[in-house]
Amino acid sequence: MRRLSTFVGLAxxxxxxxxxxxxxxxxxxxxxxxxxxxxxxxxxxxxxxxxNTAWWTDAAAKVKIDLGEVVDMTGLTISVDNNDDYKVMASxxxxxxxxxxxxxxxxxxxxxxMDTISTVKGDPDRVKGLGFQPGPVRYFRxxxxxxxxxxxxxxxxxHTAP
Length: 162
Hints:
This is Discoidin domain-containing protein. The chain has strands at 7-9, 15-17, 24-27, 54-56, 63-81, 85-91, 98-103, 114-118, 135-145, 151-160.
């Protein structure tokens, strides 16, 4: 497996995978602003859930990301609206899906707007107990339910081993 794209070294040797040119994003028809879901531009903590984000009000909607190649995922950081439940599914082939992250409305630290959630040890936005499952991945499928019924995703960051 090759690395997704350019990597930036952080404290403790952590490497982050930035959005790659080969990655593509697609969304259900109910999603507004689909391209914001994986453009490398992180929403500010607490910003309005419809500003420069992929947002929707139908629980059946999904945001899909194809990284363009398989990477060995060691962690995820994601920006989502603060008061809803989110499910992140992953796949190597786009056919068989596994839940790799489960975010509950009570997770995170923001009381309004967009919240950044991470699975990476040492990250200030880390939330323990998310049920994160590392491993090889190419595709992601993000959906939401419960909460106030106003859903949003601002960005996804795939962490890989150095």
